[in-house]
Structure formats: C-alpha cells, structure tokens
C-alpha cells in the first residue's frame, strides 16, 4: 500500500469532527445560497498537500461553527483535464496541486491550482505554511 492509499483509507477518521468533508464528482453538490463553499483537490501522496490540510483543519478547529462549506477531493479521481472541470468549472489545465475553487453565495469567484492555489487558501484562512 502506498502512502496515498494509506492516507485515503484513514481520511474519514482523520476528518471526523472537523468542518472538512470529502466529496467526489458523482455527488450532487448543493451550493450554499449564502456563505462560501471551498473545494480543494489534493494529492494524498503529497506531503505539502497533507501539511496544507493539517494547517487548515487546525485553523478551523479554533472556530466553533465555521461558516464555510469546505470539501476536499482526491485528484487521482481525475483521469483527464476535463475531469477537473467537473469539480471546478473553468479551472483550465492542472499541472500541480492543490486545486482550489471558492464559491460565494453560489457563484464561483476564485479558482487556482499549484502554488497559486496554496496561496489562495493561505490568504483565505491566514494559514502559515512552510
């Protein structure tokens, strides 16, 4: 079993009690009429993506009722570039993770991948990343 498989197998246990949920392209997504939805595509074999998730979960744990709807998906579920479009319309070619989309009141307002995606999340949640 590779490291990514190990992490994926324990993901629901790790996320239990956190504001972060797992999603996939088959699920019907309901966008909040008010507030934000944050969707993050991560590579579970990537140490930097796992550190990002860890920092985000710790940050969110400090808030009793996080207002944002935060979901993650496994980028390995995307076999083609078009698969990323199902998650985040208009994301364009994805060459690095994380893949990030931010919806506000049901409208996609920000999207980025790679270092820009990481920066987007760091700015959104005031995360201190290495």
What would the keywords be for this entry?
4 helices, alpha/beta, single chain, 130 residues, 5 strands, Glutaredoxin
Question: What would you say this structure looks like, in words?
Answer:
The structure is a single chain. The chain is α/β, with parallel strands linked by helices and 130 residues long. The longest helix is centred in the middle third of the chain and has 15 residues, at 47-61. It has one domain (3-125): Glutaredoxin, CATH 3.40.30.10. The chain contains four helices and five strands.
Total number of β-strand segments?
Answer: 5
CATH fold assignment:
Glutaredoxin
Oligomer: single chain
Largest beta-sheet details: 5 strands, mixed
Q: Which value, in Å, is the CA radius of gyration?
A: 14 Å
How would the global form be characterised?
globular
Mind telling me the CATH superfamily name?
Answer: Glutaredoxin
Order of helices and strands: HEEHEHEEH
What is the second-level CATH architecture?
Answer: 3-Layer(aba) Sandwich
Q: Mind telling me the CATH class? A: Alpha Beta
Largest beta sheet: strand ordering: 1-3-2-4-5
SS-based structural class?
Answer: alpha/beta
Q: How many angstroms separate the termini?
A: 27 Å
């Amino acid at each position: 079993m590779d490291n990514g498989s190990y992490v994926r197998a324990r993901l629901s246990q790790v996320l239990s009690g956190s504001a972060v949920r797992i999603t996939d392209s088959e699920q019907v997504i309901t966008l909040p009429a008010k507030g934000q939805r944050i969707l993050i595509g991560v590579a579970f074999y990537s140490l930097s993506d796992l550190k990002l998730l860890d920092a985000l979960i710790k940050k969110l744990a400090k808030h009793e009722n996080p207002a944002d709807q935060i979901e993650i998906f496994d980028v390995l579920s995307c076999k083609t570039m078009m698969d990323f479009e199902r998650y985040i319309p208009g994301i364009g070619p994805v060459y690095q993770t994380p893949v990030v989309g931010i919806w506000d009141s049901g409208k996609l307002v920000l999207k980025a991948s790679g270092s820009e995606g990481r920066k987007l999340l760091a700015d959104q949640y005031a995360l201190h990343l290495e």
